[in-house]
Amino acid sequence: MKKRLVPFSRAGSVYGLVILTAAFVFIFLCHVAASPQSSGDELFFRANQAFREARYAEAAKDYEALIASGYAGGHLYYNLANACLKSDRLGVAILNYERARLLIPRDADLAFNLSYAQDRRTDAVQPPAQTISSVFFWLGSFNLPELFWTFAALNAALFAVLILRVFAKSDWSYYVFVTLLFLWLAGGVSFSLKLYETSSDDRCVVISRQADVLAGPQAGDTLLFRLHEGTVVHGERSDSGWKLISLQDGKRGWIRSADVGAIMDNRLRQKLIPW
Amino acid sequence: MRVRRTLSGLFLAVLLTAVFPVCGFAGVSVQLLLDKSEATVQDTITLRLRVSGAGSLASKPRIQGLQNFTVAAGGTSSHIEIINFSRNEYIEYLYYIQARSKGTFQIGPAEVSDGAKAYRSNAVTLTIRDVPKPQDQGQAEGPLFLKAALSKASVYVDEPVIYTVRLYRLLKVSNLSLEIPDVSGLAFKKIGEPIEYQSVVGGQPYDVLELRYEVVPAHRGRYRIPPATMVMAVYGSDGRRSGFPFGDPFFSMPRPRPRSVTSNPLELSVSPLPAEGRPANFSSLVGSYTMSSQLDKDTVAAGDTASLSVTIEGRGNVNRIPDLSLPDIAGIKTYADQPDLKTEADEQGYKGTKTMKWAFVPQKEGTYVIPSLSLTYFDTRAKYYRTIRTPAHALKVLPGASAQAGQTSAGIQPQPAPQGKLKREVVEVGRDILPGHTGLGDLHAGLQAMPAPAVFWALMLLPPLLCLGIYSGRKLVNPSGAYEEHIRAKGALKRFLKQCPSRDAAAETLLDACREYFNSRFRVTLGTLTPEEAAAILENHGVDGSSRDRCKSMLTELTGRIYTGQGDRPFDRYDELVSVIREIDRQGR
């Protein structure tokens, strides 16, 4: 009774082909994701030089141009905020510090300068609470892409170990799998919460020196209260050039859209939540 | 399961560490406490001895200075406090003491021992005054009455006086609330928590509840303080008719009744502060104060910082302690820190400590004089304006750091400080933002953007799909699991050689290794391997006759060795056996 075994050479070549294709696709995707953008180095140097020579308005303009051309990194927002603060545009400065914080949350210089700018605000308004970050405190130390790439790496590692275990089940691979599974769950939950928090970020900053908040979206409506530049509010909905905002203490009203800037603007939304 | 147990154990350990972070006792401390520092011979005072950090005491505590008191033990109680994850456990010994005569007595220190070592407490001072005259204290006015008193009947403007309200009771009361009289020009401020003690009035032992207030008069004049009113719920009879037909206490229920009692009115005479001797910049500070100053170093290098601390402490209207100003000193930049006022209440009222600090940054070398600072207040005991001063300090300034370095290299050896360098607070001189990020790396930021949607979904879905594909493909190509068996069979020879690596292997070990080899290599499950079975298996798997016979022969010999009691000895045909197994492994299908 002769039993024919599996033709190993054929099976091996099939697996090899699959793995090779997957690796190729993975490397290609990573390459696409990390592809360099067009050069803006010269403009960057020019903006830095303008800042050093105290031509802050010019520096801010150059930084804005860089951001508009796609270099929307946290350090650029930070530099732009510095230039705005030096140009006495406190509201725009705080707006850009907050944007930078979404991208470089652990930057100590940013925290220091933001605190300095917040001290210069006129309104004693409690900043909008971010409930998720206050409970899952570690989320505030990471930006969304960092949590995504961490989770992607854990995802790849977890299934790589699972693939390994399809061929050989060993004790060590079991423990590695359990450890990775735990990390994968933690990473997945963290990424999901951060994604939710970022996508639902409706905070706005008052960028005018003083802005009237009215009872309705018309200039003749009753004046409810006044806000000053740098105050962070919740933006709810817009209606023909007006925006409904609310404060942490429950005050609500309509403000001109031009008087506030959304922290999560379209450019930043496209960068962080592109789908 | 093992992992789960480990995780459970880890979780429990973390939980226990969080809840009980401090095991054992940090140190033994003994503290003696009095509920009041002044009383009469008719009052019962509560004395507490608090021992913390000792598990149990070897003997009863001994308290010195109680010769002039009647002492009754009030029991022992244990307390455990967990505050900010810090555990504090202490035992409290309670004593009720009553003085036999008037005078000022020092009680303590108390001594306790845990068997190995004796510990001593602090000492406390108790002043026993005369029993107030009947018109001051009042005769017993039934089972419940309220008395008010002032510590002084005549004071100066802004001089605090203590207003005391005492509730004397023979009945059980609850839900107490006190209405303090509202007098224009007099500011009442509560001092500490109410205290309870016992006192004898008119031969009756009363439970007394005492509340203290600091009263500060704002203007001169004669003030009439109306009676204070205390509202409460009273249990039991207070002399009124109970309403029960026969007054039978067996059937009566302890139902509380609302009741209010009022105190006696009082008068307070307030004199203006004398004009004579009053300085022009007088700050209305009244009371009794001391002032001290300290320069943290008398020698600094130019550009380095020294700091001066001035502390004013005392009793009186401490909130009026002024912020002193230091005149400019040529050659020294001076930065004033925010003054810090701390107040604390005790039986005599409020005492306060105000600390003011200045940082000095000398610009060049030389010797500078930090001028004296003065404070004038009205001393209510001496009844005149008193001026207190700090001493002037000399500050020697050496050349800057670079010059000092030159001196050191020239041969002056720096001496190490005996207790380390003195530390000082960092003074914020100015505020500004930190500079921008100008490196090229800051422009091309790293992980600050999410990938394109296609990449995102690929990275999320590719690994599980790949895993699923490989698993399914493998099942499809090799549904019977023959591949694993082949792999296992390929490893059989390796395991055999690993099990019997040398000629020293015993016959018994070799036979076991052969059995396991056959089981793995030919996928059988033999509990024992007989030569005949081995030959049959080899024949079925295509092994030639010569190898079969040699194998059978050696297995027969191995079995024979074991049955003749030589199983623990080495097998002299080891090399031949290995050679045959290799041959079988090569030929076998």
Q: How would you describe what is shown here?
A:
The complex is a heterodimer of chains A (275) and B (589). Chain A has helices at 8-33, 41-52, 56-68, 74-86, 90-103, 108-119, 131-135, 144-167, 171-199, 266-272; strands spanning 203-206, 210-214, 223-228, 232-239, 242-246, 252-256, 260-262. Chain A starts with 7 loop residues before the first helix and ends with a helix. With 275 residues, chain A is of the alpha+beta class. Chain A folds into 3 domains: 41-120, Serine Threonine Protein Phosphatase 5, Tetratricopeptide repeat (Alpha Horseshoe); 135-198; 206-262, SH3 Domains (SH3 type barrels), CATH 2.30.30. In chain A, strand 4 (232-239) and strand 5 form a beta hairpin. Chain A has 10 helices and 7 strands. In chain A, the strands form 2 sheets. A 5-stranded antiparallel sheet of chain A has the order 6-5-4-1-7. Mean pLDDT of chain A is 85; it is low at 1-11 and 31-38. Chain A is globular. In chain A, helix 3 runs antiparallel to helix 4 (74-86) and helix 8 (144-167) packs antiparallel against helix 9. By secondary structure, chain B is α+β, with helices and mostly antiparallel strands. Chain B folds into 4 domains: 29-129, Sandwich (Immunoglobulin-like), CATH 2.60.40.740; 134-240 and 249-271, Sandwich (Immunoglobulin-like); 289-405, Immunoglobulin-like; 484-587, no CATH class. Chain B is 23% helix and 38% strand. In chain B, the strands form 7 sheets. In chain B, strands 1, 3, 5, 6, 11, 13, 15 and 16 form an 8-stranded antiparallel sheet that branches. In chain B, strand 28 and strand 29 form a beta hairpin. In chain B, helix 10 crosses helix 11. At the A-B interface, helix 1, helix 2, helix 4, helix 6 and helix 8 of A face helix 4, helix 5 and helix 6 of B.
